[in-house]
Every structure is written in structure tokens, then in C-alpha cells.
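Example 9 (inverse folding). The structure is encoded as follows.
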């Protein structure tokens, strides 16, 4: 029986080796060390090209099934009428330690615990590099004028666990500067994540209001990745620039689209984060996403917030349904 593409994308267990690993690899290096990450892409994206005008980086969910997400990106691009010659599709693969032995991968391959990459944690080996360092490396490559002379737009998108990566990266990113210097637009697309980063201790109540949460009920409620306490190493070494005010100010100015499934409202979904910290944000993904949109709007009423939230009616926890929708196609490719 044929299985749907990514419907209920995370219902299967994620704590087992992936079926497919990308054959191409991207080198990532910082002062902390170096490693490689498998990457799916259309064409030889590391070779100079004058044709590419848009790059879409899509982040897989917790199943680490980057091959499936690459197929989704190709289908969505075709639905949007995109041209493979001028649209670069990139899907990095954040592997777990068990994947390395299962596929006899080279020791240079970066690997995390099962889900640590979703919050920007450091890899377990071969060097303590964050999943955010990987995104920095991709953006640095795309910013090369010699390699991508015609590039005008970069989109970083993710669904579910990948949506968590994108939302957190949009808060703490250090990698956008080379693109900004070239005048390349950068957009973030966050789809159906289980939780968000809050900038203070306020959390939504059942009535929709925001009140200071009592930490005695959940001491971890404001720790990263739910709040700004105990930032990951990637973000905690920036001094004043990693203060709550600085991070929020930059995040509010970034171009962020949140896509929510109107039917992604099951409080018992097997892949929903039901930790006490996540529960302080709402009962289910739809409620948490709508609450976070109100939270950001209430904190930035003095200017037009460059954030928008769309609910896709009739779609549940389904990456294909989200990104194939009119709103999803517009968010990824600027057209429906």
C-alpha cells in the first residue's frame, strides 16, 4: 500500500536509523572544529552559476527523512510554476549518531542525539558544531557573488521539527550578514512547530490573555528552547547582542511567515511536545501558533511587524498539505 508523502509526518518512531542518506556533503567549519553534513540539492549547487535567482532551504522533521522533504520541495516548486534552472532547492540532513554506523558514513559526518539539532544544540561529534552553524555555512556559500551572481532571494523553511529549527534560527542567527551586505532578501517560513521561543515570562491563559507564568509549576518553562534562559553555545557567546532585548528586536525586524494547519489541533498527537514547558504555550500546535502571533503583535504595536501567520483550513500535521497550499506556495516561492 502506498504511503502518503509526509502526512502525519512524525507519527512513526524517530529513534531508528534513517532509510536514505544524501550522497553529497557540505563542509562546515568554525573555531570549534569542522565536519560535514549530507545535503540533497537540485544540480551542482557548489559550482558557479549565473542562473539561480532564488534558493529555498527546507528543513526536515524529526524523522530526519531529508529525501522525502527534497521530493516535497521539488513538487512544490513545480506546483508554483518555478523553473529548476533559476530555483535552487537545498535540504540538509541532520543525522543521529545511530545513522552513522547503520550507513557506514565517514567519521567527518556531523551527528546529534535524536532531536538535539532541533534546538540548535551542538553535535555529539566529530566537533561541537550547532545545527545553526550548518545553516550559517549554507548562507555563506549562497552569499558568494562569484558563485551566485544573480541570487536575489533566500528562503529558509521547515515543518514540525524543522519548523522549530527555523523559528529558533530566526531568533539567534548570525549568518544573515553576508546576504544583507549583498542586498539579498532572506525570509523565514515556520510551519506547524510544537513550540516557540518566548522573550519573557508571559504565557497565554485559557482566556487568551498573557500573564507572568508561575515558575514553580514548571521550572523549565523559560529555558531554551522555550525561552531565553540557558541559551545554546551558538548564541550565548555574543555578549550584549544575545540579550533578550537585542534578540527580540532583530527577530521582530526579520521577515517571518508562520503556516499553521487548521486541523493540527490534536492535544494528544503522538509527535506533539507535551513537556510542561511546551504546555505553557497552549494545548496543541494550532493554539500555540495563534497565541504566539498575538504575543508578538502585542509586544510590537508601534510598528508594522514583518511577521504574518496563516491558517490553512482542513490541513493537519501534514507538510505536503501545508507547502502545497496557496499560502505555502506563496511563502516558499512568492507565487501561488
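The amino acid assigned to each position is listed next.
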Amino acid at each position: 500500500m502506498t504511503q502518503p508523502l509526509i502526512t502525519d509526518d512524525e507519527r512513526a518512531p524517530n529513534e531508528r536509523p534513517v532509510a536514505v542518506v544524501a550522497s553529497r556533503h557540505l563542509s562546515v567549519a568554525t573555531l570549534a572544529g569542522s565536519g560535514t553534513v549530507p545535503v540533497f540539492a537540485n544540480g551542482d549547487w557548489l559550482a558557479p552559476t549565473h542562473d539561480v535567482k532564488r534558493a529555498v532551504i527546507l528543513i526536515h522533521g524529526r524523522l530526519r527523512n531529508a529525501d522525502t522533504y527534497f521530493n516535497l520541495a521539488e513538487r512544490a516548486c513545480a506546483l508554483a510554476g518555478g523553473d529548476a534552472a533559476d530555483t535552487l532547492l537545498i535540504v540538509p540532513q541532520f543525522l543521529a549518531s545511530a545513522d552513522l554506523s547503520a550507513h557506514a558514513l565517514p567519521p567527518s559526518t556531523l551527528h546529534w542525539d535524536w532531536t538535539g539539532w532541533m534546538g540548535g544544540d551542538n553535535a555529539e561529534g566529530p566537533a561541537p558544531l550547532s545545527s545553526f552553524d550548518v545553516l550559517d555555512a549554507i548562507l555563506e556559500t549562497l552569499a558568494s557573488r562569484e558563485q551566485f551572481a544573480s541570487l536575489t532571494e533566500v528562503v529558509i523553511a521547515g515543518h514540525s521539527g524543522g519548523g522549530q529549527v527555523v523559528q529558533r534560527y530566526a531568533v539567534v542567527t548570525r549568518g544573515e550578514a553576508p546576504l544583507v551586505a549583498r542586498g539579498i532578501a532572506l525570509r523565514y517560513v515556520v510551519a506547524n512547530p510544537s513550540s516557540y521561543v518566548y522573550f519573557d515570562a508571559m504565557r497565554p491563559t485559557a482566556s487568551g490573555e498573557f500573564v507572568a507564568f508561575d515558575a514553580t509549576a514548571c521550572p523549565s518553562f523559560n529555558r531554551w528552547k522555550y525561552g531565553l534562559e540557558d541559551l545554546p553555545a551558538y548564541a550565548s557567546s555574543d555578549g550584549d547582542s544575545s540579550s533578550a532585548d537585542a534578540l527580540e528586536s532583530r527577530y521582530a525586524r526579520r521577515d517571518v511567515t508562520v503556516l499553521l494547519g487548521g486541523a493540527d489541533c490534536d492535544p494528544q498527537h503522538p509527535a506533539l511536545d507535551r513537556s510542561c514547558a511546551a504546555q505553557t504555550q497552549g494545548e496543541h500546535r494550532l493554539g500555540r501558533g495563534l497565541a504566539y502571533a498575538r504575543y508578538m503583535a502585542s509586544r510590537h504595536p508601534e510598528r508594522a511587524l514583518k511577521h504574518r501567520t496563516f491558517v490553512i483550513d482542513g490541513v493537519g500535521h501534514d507538510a505536503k498539505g501545508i507547502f502545497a497550499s496557496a499560502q505555502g506556495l506563496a511563502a516558499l516561492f512568492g507565487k501561488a
